[in-house]
Structures are given as C-alpha cells and as structure tokens.
## 1
Amino acid sequence: MTVDISYDARTGEPVTELATSTTQDVAVALAAAAAAAPVVASTAPAERATWLGAIAHALDVPETAAELVRLADEETALGVDRLTMEIGRTSTQLRYYAEVAVEGSYLDATIDSAQTDRPALARVGVPLGPVAVFGASNFPFAFSVLGTDTASALAAGCPVVVKGHPAHPRLSRALADLTHRALAGTTAPDGLFALVTGFAAGTALVRDEHTAAVAFTGSQRAGLALWRLANERDVVIPVFAEMGTVNPVVVTRRAATRMDEIAAGFAASFTRGAGQYCTKPGLLFVPRGSGATDAVADALRRLAPSAWMLTEPIAGSAATGVGELVRAGAEVVAEIPGPAGGWAVGTTLLRARIEHLRAGSRLLDECFGPVAIVTEYSDRAELDRALGRLQGTLVAAVQSGAPDDGDDPDLAPLLTRLSALAGRVVVNDWPTGVAVTWAQHHGGPWPATTAPATTSVGAGALARFTRPVAFQNTPDAALPPALRADNPWRLPRRINGTVS
Amino acid sequence: MTVDISYDARTGEPVTELATSTTQDVAVALAAAAAAAPVVASTAPAERATWLGAIAHALDVPETAAELVRLADEETALGVDRLTMEIGRTSTQLRYYAEVAVEGSYLDATIDSAQTDRPALARVGVPLGPVAVFGASNFPFAFSVLGTDTASALAAGCPVVVKGHPAHPRLSRALADLTHRALAGTTAPDGLFALVTGFAAGTALVRDEHTAAVAFTGSQRAGLALWRLANERDVVIPVFAEMGTVNPVVVTRRAATRMDEIAAGFAASFTRGAGQYCTKPGLLFVPRGSGATDAVADALRRLAPSAWMLTEPIAGSAATGVGELVRAGAEVVAEIPGPAGGWAVGTTLLRARIEHLRAGSRLLDECFGPVAIVTEYSDRAELDRALGRLQGTLVAAVQSGAPDDGDDPDLAPLLTRLSALAGRVVVNDWPTGVAVTWAQHHGGPWPATTAPATTSVGAGALARFTRPVAFQNTPDAALPPALRADNPWRLPRRINGTVS
C-alpha cells in the first residue's frame, strides 16, 4: 500500500499518512462516472447549475471555509489571507461556470433548415464523458479538487474524477468529502464526482477506457508525460494540459523613465505566492543602461519576501534551478534569504546576457519558485532576435511609456510579436492573476499547453469538454433538447445563419 | 529525382511523369509562407475574401472548368458528370468560407471592460500561420489542392502549402497554376499559396519549423502517421486529420417494411464514386429475418455499378480487403464484376454474423471501395452490444419507421447511442454527401479524426486555424482591429457578456 504524507510545509514535519487509491478504486470510480455520464449529459444546464451551486454554498459556510483554509495553510504555507481569498474565488468560479452553462452559447447550437439542394442539419456540443482532472499544487482551491477544471467540466455536463495532488492530501480529501455531502442533497447522480489519490491512480485514470478527456495544471514534465500516455491509448483522448512557462516581460525604452515603479511591480509579481504561479514573470527584458537590475534588487530588499515552498521536491528544484541557471550563463545579483525551517527557500534575482538566451538553453525554461532573470537589450533588432528564441508561453507583458500610452512606438510591434508567442498579452500590468471572465484566455502556444486553442480559465473553458454532433434530417421529437423547435433550454442559437 | 506518374485510371497506362519537389523547394515554399503569414493575418477578412473570390472566379470559367474536369476524369475515372458537379462545389465553397470569414463570428471577439476587481480583457482568434494541407485522392477538387482545408485556412488568414496527392498529379499542378495566376491579379502577398509534391515533401512539410498546423483528408494509416510525425516535433503542432471510417447504418424493426427502398438506397450510397467516400456506409445492421441481404444484392444487380478505382494501390487494397473480411468471418453474398482494364474492381456485398463484430476485428475497419457488409441483429440488446464495439466514426445513420416517423420507439435510443459514436447522425437519409453549411460537422470521435472537436467541412472549419489571444489592459490603438472600439471589421462581438 502506498500513502500520501501530509506535511506541515513550515516545519517539514509529517503530520499524518493517508492511504492512496488502489487500481480497483480507480476502476470503480470511472465505472460509476461512465454510468452517470449519459444522465449528466442529458440534464438541463440549469439543473446542473444547482449541483455546482450546492458545492459553492458548502464552501462558503464560514466555519467550513475557515477550517479548510487552516488545513490548506498548514499543508501549503501559502498564508491565511491568500488562501481565504482563493477559497472565495473558488466558490465564485463554481457559480460562474454554472452561469456560463445556463447561458448556453458554449454549446454552439446551430440549425440549418432543409433546402432543395441540402438536408436539414442541426448541430450541438455533446459532453465528452468522464473527465480526469489533475489538480495543481500551487492553488489548492482554485486549480485543484474543486478548481477551474472540475467546475468547467461539471458545468459542461461531464462527470469528474480528480487525481488529488500529493502536496495537499488532507485538504483534497476534505474537499472531496464536502463535495459528496453537498451533492447528496441535490438531484446529481452517483458517479458525478470522485477523488482518487496516488501516482499509480493517475496513470490508471489516463489509461482507463471510460476516461474521455484529461485536464491538467502543473509542470511541463508531468503534463507532457500524461499527454504521451494518452497518445498511447487505443482510443486517444484529448489532454488539456496547462503548464508553467517563462512569461517574459519587456520594458520599452520609454518606460525606462518609471523604472522604480516597474522594478517594484516586477519584484512583487515574481515573488507572489513564493513564485509558485504558472504565470510568474520569469524573464525581464530591459533597455541596456536603464539600471533595471539594481532597481529590482533594491525593490526585492525592500519587499523582503519570505518563502516556503509547497513541497520538499519543489523547494529542492528551486534551489537546484538557480544553480542550473548560473551554469547556463546567468549571474546572481541578489539573494534574499528565506525563513528558517520547512520547505523554505531564498529569493534569487539573476542577470543574463541576452546572447545567452539561446534556443534550448536552461535560461528559457521555467524555474518554479521566487527566481527571476533580468536581461538587457541594445535595440529593437536585438530584442526581436531574443524574443524569437523563446518558447510558447502562457502570458507575456509589456511595460510601455505610460500607463495609457498607446503612442509608445515600440508598443504595437511588441504586441504583434508577443501575441505570436503567448496566450495572453498584458500591457502595463503584471501577468500573475487570471480573472475569470468571458474574454479570458489562459493557454498559449506549445509547450504552454498541449491544446493551444483551449483555455482552462474563463467562459471558454467549458467548450473543451464537448464535441459537436450534427443531426441530419432528424425529426424534431428525436433531437436533443438543445436543438428542438421549442428550445426548452432557451439557448442562443444560430438558425439559418442568424444568431437569435 | 523522384517523380509523380500520371496514369489514365481506365487503362492503367502511364500518361506522363512529373518531377516532384525537392526538400529545398519545400523549405522555400514555407519560408515564403512564413514571411507572408503576418501580412495575411492582419489583412481584413473582406480583403482576403477577394483573394478566394478570384480563385473561385478562375475555376468557374467554362473552358477552364471543362479542361480541368477532362484532366481529372482521365486521372481519377470519377466521370465527367460527378467531376463537373464537384468543381462547381469547389468554387462555391471557396466563396462560402470567404463569407464565413467576413461574417467574422469564427474569431469569437470578446471584450470585458475593466472593473474594480479585474483588468480590461479583450480576446480574439489569431491565425496560426502556415498550414500544410494534404489533399485527398477521392475528391480531386473539393478535398484537394483547392478543397475545403485550403479554402478554410486561407479564409481564416493562414498561408497554405499543399502537398498534392499523387493520384492526380497533373490536375494538382494545373490547379496550382490557376491559383497563382488568379492571385497575381489581387492584393495577396507572395507566399500565400504553394503546391509541393512527392512523399518526401510531405514529411518535410510536417517537420518544417514554419509549419503551424496540418490538415489532412484520407486513410487512417496515413493520417495517423502524420499525427505521430507532428507529435515528434520540438514544437508540436495540431494535426486535423479526417480519416475514413466504417459509418454504420441501422435499420429499425419498423423500417423493415420498406426494405426494398432501403436496400436500393444503401446500394446506391455505398457504391457512389466507386465506394471511395470517407462517409461510405460500410456496415448495415438489419433486423434478423428482414430479407435485407437479398434485397441489397438484388438492388446491386439492378444498379450494376461499374467501378474504376483512383489508383492501382487503392484497387489492390479493395480486392485484398474483401479477402481480409472473409478471413475475419464474413461471407460474400454478391459480386458484381467491374469493367475491364485499368484500376477496375468489382462490387462486393458481404454478410457477417453479428457476434463476429468483435473489437479489433478487420470487420470493424474501413474497406475503401465498393464493398459493404450486412449483419443481422435479433433484438435491441444484441444491437447495442455490437454498436458498443464499433470505433469512432464520421457518420452513422438510422433508417426508421417512416420518413417522418419520430414515434419509432427505437429511434431516440439509437440516436443517443450513435451520437456517442459519430460526428454526424443521419435519419432516413444516407451518409454520403456532406453539405457545406453553418450546422455541418464533418469529424467524429477517434479514430475518425485526430481532433474530434473540429470539423473539416462547414462554417466551423475556419476556427481550426486560429488560436485565441487575450489582451489585458491594452490601449485601444494598440489592439488588433478586431478588438478596437470602432470595430472596423464590423464583427459580431460579445461585450461584457452580451453578443451584439
């Protein structure tokens, strides 16, 4: 029997051991999910919304939330304030995805009447079936057991089996228990939701014939491993892996006049959550001679960030990562020691010469944790060449002349350049923080995600879990509700080319 | 130097040899496409529409069309009537995809204003860049050099490099020449379109760093090979492969009263174009004792289909395929001899016992050509078990009680069952023929396509070639035109949740 060990991240002491799922547990969970799938798929979005609402409501109970935050803080050391905000975001996003499902445009219901030269066709998204969700370590609420992948898959009509992250094993089980209790008071079928734990369970989850899709948030190494595993199946299934990237920030020449403000913003952004954001800005391009490196180092010393990492391996790889960056040509310019004990690490600022940013260099890979690199460019051509060597990234940012300066001559060409590289481009703001809205896109070109056309945050997240089916020459009574003449789900639909 | 050999399909005689592209040719084509990509991407859809219109106009010139049809008929033996219809469809669909681009909803432009707790976000689809299109053999116009993949990629703002199919090498070159001449009179940049030929060129296309996506129509073997090749790249790119499938048809008990009509329809559908449709109905499920097998055999004898195949290998594998089906347990019930000479094959109807339709059996794989299997079921449970063993398929059909009978008790459960299996479900109609409309979906679960959420036909085809990018806190003047306040492209947009 293998176990998950729950540690106190601030002391490194093991608190308790918890048995992980057996292969049999996984098979049972997926069989139940597969049995529930047709029921869930044919349930009206408004009814599914009540299931998500019940979970959100349970999370919002103050005593429950306080206890979950306490548990999460012990396991992750992310702090009570941040975790309290995050649990609030999590119930908000459960409700948000339910609202998006009820609004219904994600189903893309489209109807073409018969004409003399063609048959009647009506198309709608059908839910894929059971989704395997791999929670992330760094957002124990918002991207984990009840996070954005779970919420959007449930909202889209798919049962979910979560593989709990071993960085917060007690919290994962507590969230699963809460979910089961909340759903018991609703019309949700058994099998709508399950938690499994342990490494072997994750592999079994991806291989199981009932699993229809995989959603993952985490490192490139783990995400690509799941993608490869899914590609080896007889029936290959989609893997929506959102993976950590370098997330470059470019400071234009005009922006250099406000370098102190930019340095403070950069220091705060890359050390936020101990640098454990997939959107952490890891690489700052500054005009040569702008004094940015010293300014960021000063800002860091004023900020005096203190950082426990989520797990011992993450703390280890943050420390190792700094060594790798130095061997790849970077130079340490500031080190702020971390707290004592547990999974603590220091904050490190490095400087690299722009010519060292070569394709394949370690300098162009994410270093998870409170670590960032500053690099100087001489002119736009040198900057362009360096940007051309970067990997696809979740987000890229520009600090331009002034907060509302659309006239900075470097801005427009930079946005064109960066939008070829990133899923989100930010101007005079920082990449950390991903709002849950209609226009959000949290994805990006390979290897930021395995499916660059999809987003894991925002209204677009639901569409990942459906697949269109067209019904040709089908009598109204035999069509799914979304396509019937009386439109019982009150969906926006495109009929003969016109949306109504 | 390797060559493409153009054969007369009716005689099997080689007509001429044509040099194929060198690796250098491919690199040059892709470098030009990559250079054109930003220009094409930033061109307004209405201007791109004039480029597609110029190509369509050139195809529509009667003398040109007649000469292209003559050439296509010699190379494919598909017949002048069918090819004349197909070239008409091809110019129509070039114009259709241009109209869909101008309408602009495929860009999914979405704008959220800033609020106190979140920044302004605006998202739009950006074209991926150069698309490698692998034309199909069986639709030398509609799914080849100027077919649905090329038209939808150009409409979506991506340069295209086509790998011409060796089944119609002269036609491919003639279509490419026509395209270059037509585009020369427009504002289209050099590099918008190119044709390359030869097997090695195809591999080089998929591997080239400039290629951003692959679109393919053809066999599972070839499509999956390209998918694997793309997955081995440093930067993995999406492969939209639409691949031939078995496309089952179920005749309900009530429908058995009109078996002669159904048998005639099935015979006509599976022999259409010599059975060389990816949507060919390859497997007919009929109620036991309905006399369907004899009825189909009779219909075939009345139809007396005559069939030249597209190529010698296709003719060979159709013949070999019948032997494989027999070894897998099927029994030949009717053979209609083909014409003499060239790539001719006979038409073959087989019968298989339903218990032989086991997962992994050859009976469940496509047999390209005028070949189909009839199988009898005793009751709904037996039928359901057999359907549960089928692979994902492009299309599935039901013949129910009467043309408008929504009351056939077997219809609704069958549609639920088949919509889990297929990208399109057809009632009282035949799967061959794929209308180009808003509601069309030409795709299907793995292995019908490598990307089951996407379609290669219909308005949805454009979205394959874009990737969303969100712009955060970006001044209006620096946004792409699709997201500017004055909406210069007049796109439908969702603003703060409401579509206008």
## 2
Amino acid sequence: MRIGIIGCNAAGISAASAARKNDRKAEIFLVESEEVAAYSRCGLPHAISGEVTDFANLIVFPRSYYKLMRLDLRLRTTAKSIDLKEKRLVVEYEGKEECLQFDRLVLATGSNLFSPPARGMELAYHLRTIADGKGICAAAEASSSAVIVGGGLIGLEMAVALRQKGLKISLVEMLPQIAPNMLDSDMAQILQGRLEQRDIEILTGSTIQYVQREAKSSNIVLSTGSMKADLVIAATGIRPNTELARSAGLRIGESGGIWVNPRLQTSVEDIYAAGECVELLNFITGRPVLSQFGTSAVRSGRVAGTNAAGGYATMPRVLNSAVSKLFETQVGVTGLTESQAEKQGLTTISGIMGGKTKAPYYPGSKNIFAKLTFNRENMKLVGAQIIGEEEVTQRINMLSMAIKGGMTVWDLELAETCYTPPLAEPWEVSLHEASQSVLAKMKNRKN
Amino acid sequence: MRIGIIGCNAAGISAASAARKNDRKAEIFLVESEEVAAYSRCGLPHAISGEVTDFANLIVFPRSYYKLMRLDLRLRTTAKSIDLKEKRLVVEYEGKEECLQFDRLVLATGSNLFSPPARGMELAYHLRTIADGKGICAAAEASSSAVIVGGGLIGLEMAVALRQKGLKISLVEMLPQIAPNMLDSDMAQILQGRLEQRDIEILTGSTIQYVQREAKSSNIVLSTGSMKADLVIAATGIRPNTELARSAGLRIGESGGIWVNPRLQTSVEDIYAAGECVELLNFITGRPVLSQFGTSAVRSGRVAGTNAAGGYATMPRVLNSAVSKLFETQVGVTGLTESQAEKQGLTTISGIMGGKTKAPYYPGSKNIFAKLTFNRENMKLVGAQIIGEEEVTQRINMLSMAIKGGMTVWDLELAETCYTPPLAEPWEVSLHEASQSVLAKMKNRKN
C-alpha cells in the first residue's frame, strides 16, 4: 500500500500519522511546496507579536518524527497534476517533474489567499506562511504605522500583534461590523469597544479603493476617506485551494470546497480530502460549509488518513467553533450566530447577558458577556458567542456539547455546573443567565 | 397565599426569590436560626485564609434585597415543629414560641455536622457557619500547627486555608485516600502529591482514637501513632438535617434525605424541600442520592420556590459535579468515579491522561491530568475527574454536558473543540486524548 498526501500542515500531518497508526507497513509520502512543514499557522500572529520568541518554535513535528513514523516528506515539492487512471501524482521539485505512484491519495491542499481587486493591494503583505510572518516582522521593524484590511479573525489578531509591537494601527472592514463571520453585530460592538480602548482604530463599512505607494509609506484610499501608513496588510480571507482537484475532475461542492462523503472520500474512490480545501456539513443545518479552522484540519486529517489506510472513521458535522485571544479579551463562538441562523431560514430567539466569572466577593473576578441563540421551533440551542477575560475556550466547548446534545433552553436554564467561589458562580452567565433571559423574553412576549 | 421557608441560605433564599418571581402578591417569610442569612458557606475557607478580606463580604444578599423583594426574614428564629393539619409552623425566638400560619412550606433545613465518636473530638473546631469561621480564625492566630481530621473537600480546603496562614498542617483521613467521595485513588494520589509539595502532611488510612487537651496544644492519638497540634479541626462530613421533617411524619428517603418528587414536593402536599436536606436522583443510575453542594442548593431552591408559589419546575437529576481550588491546583469531578460506578454495578473502562493546557510552544502552558470513565455496555461517558492548573471548572462543565448528552467514547474521540495557541490545544487532554486512550485500551484487549 502506497499512500500519498498532498500538503503537510495540520491536515496533512494528521492524515499521515493516522495512516501510519492504521497500517504499520504502508509506504507514506507527503508532498509540501513550502520549505517548512507541519507548523502552526494559528501561531503566526503570536510569533509576530513576539509572545512566541522564534518562528521555529511553531514547528510542531520535528524531523525526527518523520523518521520515527517512516514518513517520506518531500519539501519544496509542488503537486502539478493527478493521473487518476494510472494512479500517478506528477510533482515538481527544483524545476524538474517527477511521477509518484500511489494507491490512495489524500488532498490536504489548504487554501489560497484572497485579495480584494483594488489597485495596489497586490503589494500588501499577507499572512499565510512562516515566510510571510518573517516578512511582516521585518517590515514592522521599519514601520511606525499599519493598516490592516479585513476585520475577520486573522485581521484582528494581526492588528493586536502589531499593536503589541508598538505600531499605530488602523483596521478597515468593508462590512458594518468586525468579525462578521463569527459574531452578531451586538457582540461585535462589545469587542470593537475593547479593541478601541487598546488603541486600535477601527473603520467599519469602509471599502478599499486603491493603495498608492509613496516614498516610505503608502496612501490608502478608502470609500470613506484616506489615510497613510507604513505597512499595509491584507487579511481579506482565504479560498479553498481546489485547482488540483478540479483539474483531475473531482466533484466540487456548492461551498467551493472539494465534495466528500462522511468518510472524506472524494467523488473518486481512493482519493480523500481533508483540511481547509474540503467541504463539510454543518451540524445544525446539515448543509455544506467550509470549516477553515485548525481544529477541523486535524480532525478531518485524522479521518481521511484512517480511511486511506484501510481503517474506518467518519467526520462529524461541524459547528465551526472558534476562539481567539485579543489582548486580555477572549472571544469565542460555536454554532450559528443569530444572523447566520436567520439567513438559513431558522426562526430564532436570543439572550444576551453580561456578568462576572466568579463570586463577586472573591478578588479577581472578570467580566464576561454571552449571547445564546435558540431555534424558536424547538427551543434547542443553535449557537453561542462569548466575550470575556477567562475560561472562554472551555465555556464555548461546554456550549458546543450542549448543542450536540440537542439541549433546549429548559435543559440549560437549570443545567448542573460545578461551583467554588474562587473559580465560578453557582449560576453561570454564559449558560443559565443567558438562558433565563430568553425564558423571560418568551414570557414577556406572551403577556 | 402565605409561603413559609425554613432556612435562609443558598436553598432558602433561592426558594424565596423564585417564589416572589412567580407570585408578586404572596406573603413570604423565612425562618433562620443563625444571626446572619444568605451568606456563602463555600466561601468560608477563603475568608479564613484571608483571600476574602472580611467574613461580611460573604453575605450575598444585603438587607435591602429582602425589602425590595418583600421577604419577611426572621433571624435567630428556630423552627420547632410543623402542624400539618392546621398548617402552622411553631418557631422559637428569644426563648418565646410563636405560631406562623402557612399555605405552603419549603424546608431548607440544611445539614448537621457529623462528628466522629472519638473522645475529645467534641472540643474540636468545625466549619459550618460564619461564627465557626471567625472562631477558627481567632484560634489560628494563637496557633502554630493544626490537625485536620477528614480528607474530603472541606478538610482539604481548610488545610490549604490554614497553611496559607502559616500554620504547620497535618491532615488525617480514615480511608486509604484523600477526597474519597470525589476521586478514584489514582487521581487522589496525584492530588496528594501536589498538596504534600506545598507542605501539607497527609496521613491516610488513619483513624482518630482520642484527643487529649494539654496546656496549650492537644495530643491527638491515631490508629497509626500520635501527634501534637495547637488546633484540631473536625471536617468529618455532614448529614441532612431532617429532624423537623421526621417529627412531622414526612417520608425520608433511603439516602437519609427528605424524600421528594421531581417537583421537590415531599410526601405531604404543600410541603416542599430543597438544599442539603433533600434526596435527589443521580442522573446516571437514577438512584436516590444526596447532593450537598451549593450548585444543587440554588437549583433545588429555585425549583421548590417556583412550585410552592404555583409555578411549574422540575429538578434535573444530578451528576454531583464539584470543583475546588487548592493552592494553584484545581480539582474537579462530574458523574461517577470508576469505583463509584463499579459499586453501582456498572462495568466500566477508564482512560487517564496527562498533558498540557495549550500549545507547547506558547509560554505559560499548564499541566493537566484527566480521567474519563465510560460504561462498558454502551461506551457512554459516566464520569470525569480533572486535576489541573487552569480552566478545570469549564472543562468539567463541558464533560458534564457530554454525559447529559449521552455521548459515547466515539463521539468524544473527535468532538469539536475550539482552538487558538494561547488558550488551548487542538486535541484536548481531558476530552480527546483521554477518550483515545480508552479506545487504544479496547483495541489492545481485543488483539
């Protein structure tokens, strides 16, 4: 058995490790176009900020791991085409083409950066690879100000990282709110206020027209005015990299990702796909979605690698849970936001609540805001958004379990949680209080 | 409508608040034998240690709250007997008896301290009330060493609190492990090691024979030897206070708590019960249990108060989730331990796993140990124990949701969690890694 894996980052290395676990004898090769493999992309902003002291620290799997696991890693090698009939992968290494035979193939081709079509933006920095990160770091050293174009998670993390390096920061978002894929506008407003307090200028509802490079700095012309900055960074999203799959004739899903079944088999037997390039199903709606997060990359990689090596695994439907740390603020989400749910045709009812993370008399209690969204038809939880200063991650995980458990507002209203004054409140803001606010709303509407 | 509530701590005040919410006009009176009402018993160790600077801070509801909610609070008033036929409660205040008429009654009579029958132990300090806490504080000022008898949660918290005040501490536990109601022996061993590292001497498998008071200190004679200490504290547990219920002829459950139906109605209509005195049902086994935690007190209080005032609420079955902070160590539990589950006749399989709380390259990653126990018949999660240094509370809550959602090891193996390097790992030790260790164990057994 010869298993080929295209791409060696979160999904690819997870697929390789799972394949090895399921087949001790298989030949496994990995093709990676970058010079470095299996590093944490999610860690890049933290290496730029300096919290992580060296980009090399982001490399999760040392070379010894590939040796131990007998994985043939081919760096600086680009997959060019797949010959499905002959089961051959054509790759390019140092300008020369080579054919690699495979029995099973896993596509973990990741994403391509998306750049807005504004003139001059092609010169902007973007963040995808370690090389990108190092480039931004070097540019930041010579800069005193930066404009970040794009107010999604990466844009926000870049804004914080560069602010921590002392740069003056402006963030430009086309839509009327930041974090539009993650938060409803009411929660985004809270987050925006916190970032502004930390001296990040935020311009929402503003489109980039063009960027003009001048002597040292750039002139950025927006729909709402113009500004100057030394450094321009595009954080305008990613698109699944499906070129190889398309040219091989694999089916592409309606979300734009590679179509797969629950075992992550593509439309062609023996070809699997995992990571950002793949289309998964949303847990709540059952509809196709992209899930371009590290957490889905490692899970789908494991599932694809297990199946490619003859094991059996299925990929769970996704909630697209995410969390980020922006200065002292932690922001997390799971499931659908209210606006996403309504767009999907659900009728919803939401509760938003602010409070403290622990007993008020205990020193060091932190602030927390939570929004829970329920399906009005059956009152099941469909989404949660939290902004707070501690334990947001595991609160989101608690709520994602509640969604997966099919829990209703009545289940959550009295749900058991653990309590001790130094660590929690007996009634948890993000669970009971937000649920109780929904029940109060329902009661008021009835009266 | 006249609603009487006996006891005004976590359960009683929750019942009163819920009753008021459901009936704006009801007359509501609360009878409390102590001088202070509605303070946090769980906070007492933290006021003794000095983390909470004043015992008065523990009072959660100020006097203005009773006024606002029109609650007739009667302090230093002891309930003596219930006349079910005439619906009268006989109380004693300043040596005089009085009859209070009621339509509905909520018993929130709490617990009594249990003292081991060893000679001299009647002179030991114990911790139940603010007065007890102040007494221990005063005694600790004049002491340089203490023996804590009892290695349950309160004993452990007292040991830590007094160690933080600088006393030399020995803790004596009759059973072969500390935290016997909360942890399996393997996890208790990890906790014990951490406490010993912080200079708490722990003697397990040691029974107290007698205590002899000497000039300044006491001589404590154990089954395993003897020791001297200035201060002796009994933390040997509590028993539901059911005297009033018994003498009124209410049914007592097999756990020793007052029998109630899911609406927390006792065997007599119009009499409800809540808090530590009540018998609840275990979520997993469906069998009667006590649930003497603040979290159950406030929930059962709310349910009983709602029903007493003509509303409708049912008390969920309990997992007896608990968490404690002992120095930097957080210890939490939900559901059944392996040994509890086996005692209940379940066949189980458990996984224990140690690791880190966040990406290894991110500074400040903390240690965490987790044990998950599954029902071998259906592979559903039945219990979790965690010892770690951050976010243990919400991890326990996540796992308690997983239990309530009926999730199996296969659900948990790949369960979606949110991830960002400064806050989490893509695979969570207490969820995925512990589950995967169980699956590996199953595979090895098969082979």
